[in-house]
Amino acid sequence: MRIRDVQVGDAEILCAIYNHYIEHTTITFDEQSLQPEAFALQIEHVSQRYPWLVIEEKGQVLGYAYASEWGSRSAFRYTVASSIYLHPEAPKRKGMGEMLYRALLSQLVDRGFCRVIAAIAVPNEGSVALHKKLGFSQAGYFHAMGYKFQRWIDVIYLELPLASGNSRV
Fold first, then answer.
1. Is the peptide bond before 123 cis (omega within 30 degrees of 0)?
2. What mean pLDDT, rounded, does the chain reach?
3. What is the pTM of this model?
4. Which of 62, 136, 140, 145 supports an S-S bond with 158, CB 3.0-4.6 Å?
5. How far apart are CA 102 and CA 81, in angstroms?
């Protein structure tokens, strides 16, 4: 398996992966499928400032993870939100998600970010377990935050202080 930086040319497959979660799960609160062109613009915008990584095997993209702005105010510039999505047909329990996420966290440390926030729609035992394995701890729990597929969905917030701490401020 190989982890690499995202390319705008990845937009079609990454959009297809994300659209699966839009159409079939409550993992994301987006309700309308995205078009690859819009996804490409998101890649261009986000990857200007934050890491966006892709994991692939034998040339086949199996997932992606990226960081993005957590809050729009300048005081939040050292804190990021994180997201990870694996292809729905990717092999399970092979450590791909952990490998991809660790690479993302390493890049965040190298770039001087101090804290990562993950917002997870629950239930999502796999994602919560992955985040806790990586050292995230619960920072909040919000009831009925989103409404999708005719039901209310709770959200758990997890946080991870990064090794770069506040030393780069």
1. yes
2. 94
3. 0.93
4. 136
5. 15
